[in-house]
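ingest -> validate -> predict -> emit
validate: passed (alphabet ok, no gaps, 297 aa)
predict: started
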Amino acid sequence: MDIRQLQYFMEVARLQSFTKAAESLYITQPSISKTIRNIEEELGVTLFDRSGKKVVLTDAGRIIYEQAQPIVKSFQSLSSELGDLKNLKKGHIRLGLPPMVGSSFFPEVIGQFHQKYPQVTMQIFEDGAKKVEVDVESGLLDIGVVVLPTDDSLFHSFSFVRENLMLLVHPSHRLAHRECARLADLAEENFVLFREDFALHDRIITECVKVGFQPHIVYESSQWDLISGMVAANLGIALLPETICREINRERIRIMPLVEPVIPWQLGMIWRRDRYLSYAAREWIAFTQGKLMEDRG
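emit:
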């Protein structure tokens, strides 16, 4: 006996008629009669007294009816819940965002997504891109924003920002009058960097070593505004993406392009290739990709 047979049985019992039940279920009367006979044969009992104008439950039929009610109700509830998920009336997304990325790119997108899907909840975890990548890989996060490239064998991804790092110095700094600066010019400088769990931390150190020096790091932070504030206080120099630099007050800081080499900063959204994604998470990916590409275009 399956859930479809139980539903047929419940409808006959409710309407006390095979004909009316068949009409209600949009099937033929022979089909519903055959289904009820199959149940009776399987259980070895008679479910309905068919002697009168109306079919009436037997003692055995009443027992099955009472037991079947919560089963059918639970199935209908399950179907409704799944329907809500498919139609994105509800759902939950665990999203990882590096702090400097979240405030620059996502408040408006998150607001628009919530307006379209008000019953979908979102839990945002703010961590450096390196930790976000680890947490997406482990399954603690559904989706994350990281600095590309990543391991293409593990993650699906799309890129939405590609720009370069800029040099931030105090207005009194020896390089402040320059139009641009070479990375090698910074060999003797004090660096203010993001913490080790930020991808830019390793990226900057690697590029410095490539041109012949190990950077002298005096401060590390997770907040770009604190890093720029330290530069404004003449405590060191910093390298930050162009997007962040556009939000910095330039009265107290001199900002210029970094050349020889240019250090690229490419942001992307990632999710595991081999892990199931909820309907809500899939819609978030499609929605943000469309919005972020639209903004970039």
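The mean pLDDT is 89.
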